[in-house]
What does this fold into?
Amino acid sequence: EDRIKSMTESTETVLDSLEKSQSRVVKLEEERSAKESAFLELKGVRDVTNAYVQQLESKVGCLEQSSVELNETIETDRTRWNQEVDRLKKIQAEENESKALAFQQMMMSTKLKNL
It folds into this structure.
């Protein structure tokens, strides 16, 4: 009878230990599952972030290209503007010279008439 009692207690101890171990295994499996879910979620966030970064890099490239094109346009317009200013200055100088010659001719004509 003592032996049966001892074996029963021993069996109960083993069963308790087994139950606790099984409970720990269930907890560990739940933790692993939660960690896997978190990992997959983070991986998804990383993928979305990488895609967003690629979009931004593409937009930056477009902006850089636009900036280069705009600078070229500005330089071309500046050159045209300077050429037009030079042309207008030349015309103005020619007009001034023409007016001066006309004035001189008028003065000469007046002097000749007075003689």
Remarks:
- The mean pLDDT is 95.
- The two ends are 167 Å apart (CA to CA).
